[in-house]
Automatic annotation (TrEMBL):
Lineage: Bacteria, Pseudomonadati, Pseudomonadota, Alphaproteobacteria, Hyphomicrobiales
Protein name per its UniProtKB record: histidine kinase
Gene3D superfamilies: 1.10.287.130, Histidine kinase-like ATPase, C-terminal domain (3.30.565.10)
InterPro entries on file: 2C_sensor_his_kinase, HAMP_dom, HATPase_C_sf, HATPase_dom, His_kinase_dom, HisK_dim/P_dom, HisK_dim/P_sf, Sig_transdc_His_kin-like_C
Membrane topology note: Multi-pass membrane protein
EC number: 2.7.13.3
Subcellular location: Cell inner membrane
SMART domains listed in its UniProt record: HATPase_c (SM00387), HisKA (SM00388)
Keyword Cell inner membrane tagged: yes
Catalytic activity of the protein: ATP + protein L-histidine = ADP + protein N-phospho-L-histidine
PANTHER family: SENSOR HISTIDINE KINASE ENVZ, SENSOR PROTEIN CREC
Domain Histidine kinase, chain residue ranges per copy: 253-449
Length: 449
């Protein structure tokens, strides 16, 4: 579209940034915006048509009374005070008439821009009276003053404002604003009832995506489309949980059988005489045990663990102790609340894998955690050789071995980073790799906690 490439291009972006993100406020805008537009059109039509028409008719009636007074004065002989005309004007026409000696009319009074009374009344006076006149429609909020110049006199006529002006317009505004507020309240109540099931579905899906239990009171509700979506989510969740349970049971059986075989190997080796062959076989059995544990941990991913609280400071102390035993330096720092809501064993394994990967290839390691709002970020940096940028996505694949062997060590399984990313994503977050200011690799974990 042309406007997307012209000077109007920023307008859609402005509206996109300004629009609320939630479905509830957006639904309110969809309802309120047409209502406001309709009310504005009605108000304009009323102001331009009805209000102007009523004011014109009232003004014409008062001007005819003024013309009648002038006609009486010029047609019938009057006394010097014109008492009869003043009495008729007061009693029959509800006008306050004062006869002034001949003089020049005052200068015109400037009226507000949106004052329609001055224009309508002046137009009626010019058409009906056809004599020099002067109007003051703004000095007194309760009355309108008219002066007419006739031979030998100046007539000063004061009429009540409600006699020449549609002054009850506030009733229209009260009804318009009142009905709008009532409709908005009804719309809010209705929308809240309709959107609540959608919000419940979003919360259940978010909890399930982070490995947490869905709310106990979650059930299909709301409109038929929302009910179908909720039912589809429940069925999907049940299928996934059954698959996880079946996989866990299978892995438990496989791990039991394999551990049994490895235990028999160890027992047989114990009956052998000490020799270089025995030591080689023992190392092979230990290596098989470690690889088996790594494969099973990658396959199980500890999905069955419940969510609980984890103290980051205690976890950092354990990481420091493990690094000290290996002769490596690990600096730790925790910013914010140290208590986080995660699956404790899984998250500890995530950070431990990243730190262990750094310890194998670097001398100095930094682990910094920042807990702000509902998000937790953990940055693990080192001064090691790092990983080339084009291979950083590849190292997260299972069993991938780089030439530099950054993601594994001698005899390793190549699953450390894969397990770490799976755990991060099961918590609703992810891991990003980049260059470290220390000269090596920087692994940034960001999860909701």
């Amino acid at each position: 579209m042309p406007w997307r490439r012209g000077p109007l291009r920023p307008i859609p972006r402005f509206f996109a940034r300004s629009m609320p993100k939630g479905i509830f406020p957006r639904s309110l805008i969809i309802i309120i915006a047409p209502m406001v537009l309709l009310q504005s059109v009605l108000a304009f039509v009323f102001m331009e048509r009805h209000w102007q028409m009523v004011t014109q008719r009232l003004s014409a009636a008062v001007v005819r009374d003024v013309a009648s007074i002038i006609d009486m004065i010029e047609t019938f002989p009057q006394d010097a005070r014109m008492s009869q005309v003043i009495r008729i004007a007061d009693q029959d026409m509800d006008l306050d008439l004062t006869v002034l000696p001949p003089s020049a009319l005052p200068a015109p009074v400037r009226s507000p821009i949106f004052d329609i009374l001055n224009g309508i009344l002046g137009s009626e006076m010019a058409d009906e009276v056809k004599r020099p006149f002067w109007l003051d429609t703004t000095s007194n909020p309760n009355s309108v003053e008219i002066r007419v110049q006739i031979p030998d006199h100046v007539l000063k006529i004061v009429a009540k404002r409600k006699s020449v002006y549609a002054s009850k317009t506030y009733i229209f505004w009260i009804w318009m604003v009142g009905t709008s507020l009532v409709l908005i309240v009804i719309a809010i109540l209705f929308l809240r009832n309709q959107i609540r099931p959608i919000q419940a579905l979003a919360e259940a899906a978010d909890n399930f995506g982070r490995g947490q239990q869905t709310p106990a009171d979650f059930r299909p509700a709301g409109a038929s489309e929302v009910r179908r979506a909720s039912l589809a989510f429940i069925q999907m969740r049940d299928r996934i949980e059954r698959q996880i349970e079946q996989r866990t049971q299978m892995l438990n059986g496989v791990s039991h059988d394999l551990r049994t075989i490895l235990t028999r190997f160890r027992l047989q080796l114990e009956f052998m005489d000490e020799s270089e062959d025995k030591r080689e076989l023992q190392r092979d059995v230990e290596e098989m045990q470690r690889m088996l544990e790594g494969y099973l941990a990658f396959a199980k991913d500890e999905q069955g663990e419940d969510v609980g609280e984890l103290d980051l400071e205690q976890m950092m102390q354990r990481l420091q102790s493990d690094a000290d035993r290996k002769g490596k330096s690990v600096e730790t720092d925790v910013d914010g609340d140290p208590l986080i809501t995660v699956r404790p064993d899984s998250f500890t394994r995530l950070v431990t894998n990243l730190v262990a990967n750094a310890v194998r290839h670097a001398n100095r390691i930094s682990v910094r955690a920042r807990h702000e709002g509902r998000w937790l970020t953990v940055a693990v940096e080192d001064d090691g050789p790092g990983i080339p940028a084009e291979k950083r996505d590849e190292v997260f694949k299972p069993f991938v071995r780089l030439d530099t062997a950054r993601n594994i060590d001698a005899g390793g399984t190549g699953l450390g980073l894969s397990i770490a990313r799976d755990i991060a994503r099961s918590h609703g977050g992810d891991i990003l790799l980049s260059d470290s200011s220390m000269g090596g690799l920087r692994a940034l974990v960001r999860i909701p906690a």
